[in-house]
């Protein structure tokens, strides 16, 4: 029993409990950090376990260090005992206590030093292994946690008041935009989820089609100066409610933004996604304090018609001249349209709006996107356009529209591998977008993966049977890449309503220039352009006509 008491006394004297507690606490904090780093960098799942093993190996070293016996300083033993006075005895006792205290402090210092060194060595060893794997290891595709995925279905306009529909769509779009800012969350693009508006909803089937685990449904009722927003987060597999909430507030800009932020934060919490402080800060930012300006902005953002959209955005900046996002969207739309219309006045107005957005919010997502449009359409500097889009991507890593735009610019710049990777991510976030499928098909066609290219062409047609570009691109693929005029003819026969311009192309490929010209001469050029998005074919037919006309003139000039 006395031995146990002695051991406990030694443990206490040597500060073993404190050393053990701090070592274990530090190891736990480091493990949490390591687990987060492993998840964010897609490191192997065994790396956190390796950290635990290393900390366990270091633990005996720390404990053994605490039990190292002190080495007392050498003492000189007198040859003959001599009587001591009280003063001498007190002095000797004081000196012995001082030596003991100094020795104990030195021992404690060595104990903490060795414990800290052990801790640093463990963390450094783990860091070396992780860094070596990052630099030398063969990276597998990043695994996406299936639970961290969501589709926000179109919100119901409760009351079916027509003038409230744009407001409802805008709030839905804004909530999605907030979710795009969370890098650890897969949120399906608006383009894909809008396919489920006004249809009977089978949530499990929708989740399978979109590749998500959860669905957010909601409805908005606006009455006078009050707004009520109901939302419910549903586990698509079990059809069980994970979370539901009803918000009813006075209709002010601050209240509307607060509701959106609350919904985004609750979704992140329920799905246990990594929600970084900078992402929280971006989500909490208020674009404007003017509710009327915000409503016009919402309407302009979801409007498809150029004049309607720009009119709404112009009204938004008139109501709030400091509304940076509205200025940037207005600039982007004007610059795009001016390029296709060759309208310098509209281009100058777009540049003016862009400069205003840059003055107000140079580092905002919308400003970066507008800058990219300027470099793409005005200066023709694709490197600068891509740089701006990369800045924007850091702010919204899961915005499918942004990724599709970036992929387009990458293809234009000839960076096909990165374009393909970007498009694959865009397709995951926007699986029902036929335009993304067409771009994926073209990228694979360019890389020589014809089987994959044809699969995506067929997918694009299946997603949107009314899209003429999908049919035309597949026809071009069959003729130009595969050189299979038989299959191209069969494809044309399957789609007679679209095949007339293709007949000229087939005749051109088969060198039957007479029949190719026959089609060209029988149709006005404007009709050829309308029916044939394939400019290559139009150009070639034009060249055939030009060469044939020159030959005919040459023959007429020859003397008989």
- State the major sheet: 6 strands, mixed
Fraction of residues in helix: 55-70%
Shape call: globular
The percentage of residues in β strands lies in 5-15%
Count of DSSP H/I helices:
25
Q: From the alpha carbons, calculate the radius of gyration and give it in angstroms.
A: 35 Å
Count every beta strand, where a strand is a DSSP E run of 2 or more residues.
6
Provide mean pLDDT, rounded. 79
Derived from helix and strand composition plus strand pairing, the structural class reads alpha/beta
C-alpha termini separation: 134 Å
Spans of at least 5 consecutive residues whose pLDDT stays below 50 are 69-77, 138-143, 525-536, 549-560
Describe the 3D structure.
It is a single chain. This protein is α/β, with parallel strands linked by helices and about 550 residues long. About 70% of the residues lie in helices and about 5% in strands. It contains 25 helices and 6 strands. Strands 1, 2, 3, 4, 5 and 6 form a 6-stranded mixed β-sheet that branches. A hairpin with a 4-residue loop joins strand 5 and strand 6 (about 240-250). Helix 12 (about 325-340) runs antiparallel to helix 13, helix 12 packs parallel to helix 14 and helix 23 (about 515-520) crosses helix 25. The longest helix is centred in the N-terminal third of the chain and has 51 residues, at about 85-135. The protein starts with a helix and ends with a helix.
């Amino acid at each position: 029993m006395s031995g146990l008491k002695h051991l406990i006394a030694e443990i206490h004297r040597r500060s073993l409990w404190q050393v053990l507690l701090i070592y274990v606490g530090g190891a736990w904090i480091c493990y949490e950090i390591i687990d987060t780093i492993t998840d964010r960098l897609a490191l192997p799942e065994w790396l956190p376990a390796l950290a635990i093993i290393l900390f366990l190996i270091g633990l005996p070293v720390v404990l053994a260090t605490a039990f190292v016996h002190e080495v007392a300083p050498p003492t000189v033993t007198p040859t003959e005992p001599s009587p001591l006075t009280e003063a001498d005895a007190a002095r000797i006792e004081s000196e012995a206590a001082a030596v003991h205290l100094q020795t104990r402090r030195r021992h404690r210092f060595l104990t903490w030093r060795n414990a800290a060194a052990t801790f640093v060595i463990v963390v450094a060893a783990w860091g070396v292994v992780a860094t070596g794997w990052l630099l030398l290891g063969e990276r597998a595709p990043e695994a996406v946690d299936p639970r961290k995925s969501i589709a926000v279905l179109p919100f119901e306009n409760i009351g079916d008041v027509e003038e409230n529909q744009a407001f409802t769509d805008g709030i839905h779009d804004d909530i999605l935009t907030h979710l795009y800012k969370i890098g650890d969350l897969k949120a399906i693009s608006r383009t894909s989820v809008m396919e489920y508006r006004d249809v009977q909803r089978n949530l499990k089937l929708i989740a399978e089609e979109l590749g998500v685990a959860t669905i957010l449904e909601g409805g908005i009722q606006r009455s006078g100066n009050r707004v009520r927003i109901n939302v419910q987060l549903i586990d698509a597999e079990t059809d069980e409610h994970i979370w539901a909430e009803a918000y009813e507030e006075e209709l002010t800009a601050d209240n509307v933004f607060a509701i959106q932020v609350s919904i985004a934060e609750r979704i992140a919490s329920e799905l246990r996604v990594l929600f970084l402080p900078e992402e929280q800060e971006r989500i909490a930012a208020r674009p404007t304090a003017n509710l009327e300006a915000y409503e016009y902005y919402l309407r302009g953002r979801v409007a498809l018609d150029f004049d309607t959209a720009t009119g709404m955005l112009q009204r938004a900046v008139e109501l709030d001249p400091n509304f940076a996002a509205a200025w940037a969207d207005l600039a982007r739309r004007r610059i795009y349209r001016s390029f296709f219309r060759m309208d310098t006045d509209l281009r100058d107005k777009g540049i003016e709006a862009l400069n205003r957005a840059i003055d107000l919010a140079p580092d905002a997502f919308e400003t970066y996107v507008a800058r990219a449009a300027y470099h793409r359409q005005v200066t023709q500097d694709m490197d600068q356009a891509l740089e701006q889009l990369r800045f924007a991507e850091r702010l919204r890593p899961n915005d499918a529209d942004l990724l599709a735009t970036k992929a387009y610019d990458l293809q234009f710049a000839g960076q096909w591998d990165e374009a393909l990777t970007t498009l694959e991510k865009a397709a995951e976030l926007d699986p029902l977008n036929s335009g993304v499928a067409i771009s994926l098909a073209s990228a694979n066609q360019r890389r020589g993966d014809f089987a994959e290219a044809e699969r995506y062409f067929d997918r694009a047609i299946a997603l949107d049977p009314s899209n003429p570009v999908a049919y035309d691109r597949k026809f071009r693929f069959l003729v130009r890449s595969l050189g299979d005029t038989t299959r191209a003819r069969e494809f044309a026969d399957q789609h007679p309503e679209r095949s007339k311009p293709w007949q000229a192309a087939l005749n051109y490929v088969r060198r039957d220039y007479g029949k190719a010209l026959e089609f060209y001469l029988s149709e006005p050029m404007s009709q050829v352009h309308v029916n044939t998005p394939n400019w290559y074919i139009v150009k070639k037919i034009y060249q055939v006509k030009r060469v044939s006309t020159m030959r005919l003139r040459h023959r007429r000039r020859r003397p008989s």
